[in-house]
Specification:
Helix content is 78%, strand content 0%. The chain is an all-alpha fold. It folds into three domains: 139 residues, Up-down Bundle (Four Helix Bundle (Hemerythrin (Met), subunit A)), CATH 1.20.120.350; 107 residues, Helix Hairpins, CATH 1.10.287.70; 46 residues. The radius of gyration is 28 Å and the shape is flat. About 2% of the residues have low confidence.
Amino acid sequence: MKDSATVRSWWAPFHNFMHEGFANTSSTLYQRVSNVVMWAIFVSIALIVLETVGDLATRWAVFFTVAESVVVTIFVVEYIANVYVTKPWRAHVLGTWGIIDLVAILPSLIGFLPMRQIRVVRVLRVLRFLRLLRVLKLARQVTDAYKESAAEREQGTMRLDLEIYFLTMFSVLIISSALMYYAESSVVGTQFTNIPVAMWWSVQTMTTVGYGDVLPVTLAGQGVAAITALCGLALFAMLTQVLGKAMIRGLFGGSEDELHEANMDAVGHEALSELEHIAELRDTDMISQEEFETQRDLLVSRV
């Protein structure tokens, strides 16, 4: 009994720490953990992008290895902690965020294995691209940081919309650039010599500028270009909606829901006045009962 009580007294602080750091979105510790994870995501993406620049990965091999090991350690700890605080644990392992977390760490863990098979260039490219999918982990950081109280939602809508927009744009930029680089890098005399060059091309394509200084020549590259252009149009529509909401709030001093409700109230009052008017016409025999019912139905359909 005494040993059991000792174990519980030791385990309780650990359990509270895990819950505060990985489950309680309103705690200070959770915000700090989220910031560490977010910086780890950006660092890991930067490492993958810079690895493709000339012989940078060779000259700074130790730095890249150590940095990647630190980042992967952070992701592994986060994954295990999320499995621990989620009840049942299968909900996280088989859920969307759990799968994204696993994809973020599995390629690096495989890459650390001393196996000749994974040293094949094509396999390494696949693993590097899968590591880039860590950018999807940013979606969790944005959604978890958003508080659900009505007051904060009213004040933070614009900020949240912009965060979602820039997150989406950054994700499209990174993923499309990596896909284009891996599709074109094996071509003799390719212009896509590294991912940063491909990022310059991706920015041109998404913004529909199209300078034409860097162009894909393979079928796979052209397919990536088409999808990237369509994503650019979708991002433009998304930005238009965000700015439209901001203009409505700035010009009229209210949210879209409030304006819609006020507009519906105005329409309702107008319809009621018209209904009273046609009722008077019916009572004075200016119109028949059938005409009254027809006009009444029209008013109801308008409201």
